[in-house]
Structures are given as structure tokens and as C-alpha cells.
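Session log. Operator J.P. requested a structure for one protein chain; no other inputs attached. Running the standard single-chain path with C-alpha cell output.
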Amino acid sequence: MSQAVFPLFGPLLVFAVALPLSAGIAKLLLAILDRLGRSSSALDSHQGVRYVLLVASSGAPLAWFFSASLHQAETGDSPGVCAVGHASDAYCPEAALFALALVLCAALFALPRLLREQLALPTSASQRARDAAARVTALIHKRPSLTPLVGRIDIRDVLAVPIATLGIVRPRVVARSSFVEDLDDEALAGALHHELEHVAGRDPLRYFVAWWALAVNPVGRFVLDKELARWMLAREVHCDRDAVLDGAGAPALAQAIVTAARPLSSQHLHPALGSSDAEMLKLRVDLLLSYTERSPVRGGGQPALRVACFFLAAIIVLPHGGSTGALDVVHTACESAVASITSP
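Structure written below.
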């Protein structure tokens, strides 16, 4: 039993202590960003940094502990805290099992949604869906700016949201046939332009990573949920603006957004045109209508996901060139806690 203490209870300590602490730090840094950005009225101010902080709130401690445990397993560093004695340069199975348990725990949070995203297959197409698909295809061929959507449109009669971008590996646009029928050509083109921005930005992957960072963190889900909602709203506004710059009519896109939100649907799990919050919906429509008077300016690209990946890669390297003392603290705490419980 002593050999299994660290692999079994170590990950629980990471999820119960390290991740909540990291979420608190991320919240503090986001509050500092709010203070720094008060002079700016732009909704998407510092949104790239915000995304990195949201992902790092869980990703950074998990990446560090995983890397540190592999380092200890390979080098046999800090054998003094291991239940099984071994030389300082011998392989440490406890650390390796801890790394495996940590990965499995983190993956369990992500796997159901990942499978749902990637394995969801189109329903059998009815004549109504085929007619709507033919209309969408004809509209795409009339507008060269929508050409990247060729082969990436799926029309269904039954869909939880009117239109959305799905597919973590290969994004595609999925739309409800009734939604296509309710829009005129200009509004439908506006909706497709908006979703094309999600496809081009690989937003299903970005949204999934951000969702996982909060889902895996018991405190982060509560502390950072509003911050994630703010980032998602900023991303929707960004896609609205770029859609207009790429050829969508601002009033037509506003019409599509209102149509998608009527009746108000449940909260979306994917990048979608509609919005379930009336205040957010009004903000987006007001911004779009303002573009008819003053043309929007294209915002700078925000490679937030790539920056987050580079940051996590740097975190992974750190334990191999520095101390792994925090891992020893977790190891010792597990051994001490179980010893105090089991001792007579």
C-alpha cells in the first residue's frame, strides 16, 4: 500500500491545492489587466493575454508536475521521500505512476467532450436539409470570399443551436435547415462569413482548451467562469467585425444574429452565431449597426493558442533544469497524511 500512496493521492493533492491556488493567481493577474485597461474601451483589449492566463491557470501546474515527475522517474532524484528505497540514479516507479495518474485524471475531464465533438456524425439528410444545403452551396459559389467553406458545410434538420462551428481537428460549419430557410441571402451570407472567421481561427480547438482549463480545476470553474465568458464575447465581436471587413453586410449579419437568438437557446458549448444573453446580444447588434456609419478597423491577430502552447512548453522544460522541490512537498505530504491516518 505504501508504494501506491503517492501515485493515488498525489494527483488529488494537485487538483485540490495546486490548481485552486493557480486559479487565484490567474484571477489576480486578470484583475490587474482590468485596471491597466480601464483607459481603453475596446472589449478585446489584452484578450490574447487573458486567454493565456485562463489556459495557464490549470495547464501550467499540471504541465510542471507532469514534467517534474518524469524527471524524477528518469533520474531517481530525491529518493529520500520514496516509500521504496532506491539509489539516487535509479529509476523511480512512484514518480512515473504519479505522472500517469495525473495525465489520466486530466484526460477524464476532456475525453467525453472531445469524443462528442469529433465523433458526432451528420444525421441522415432529408429533402428539406438537401434543399437548404443546395442553397448554401449556390450562395458560396456566388461569393469567392466564402470559398474556404466549400466542403465544410453540414445542414441538419435537428440541431441544438441554429448554426455553429464544430470540429477540434478539422473545423466545419453545422447549420439547422430551418435557420437557413428563415434568412434571406444577405443575412445567410453574413452568418456564413461569421462562421468562416471561427473556422479560420480554429476556434473549436481554442474554445475546447479554455473550457478544459476550467473544467479540470474545481475552484477555477467558479473563480474564472466570468472571465471565460468575457473572452468568448470578445471573440464573437472580433468575428463579427472581421466578417464585415471580409464582405458581410453589417445590418444583414445583425439580422442573422437576432434570428439565431430567437427563441433564446441554451448556453452554447461551441463557437456559435447566436447568443443566449440579451445584454450581450444587444451589444453585438449595436456594434454592427455602428459599422454602417463608420467602417471598422481590422484588429491585430491574436495567436493566443500558440502563445499558450509555447508558454506551457517552457513550463515543461523548467523542472529538467531546476529544482523539483514542489513535487517532493506533494510526495511527502501524501506519505505523512496516510501515515497519520493509518497509525494506531
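Operator note: Residues 214 and 221 are 5 Å apart (CA to CA).
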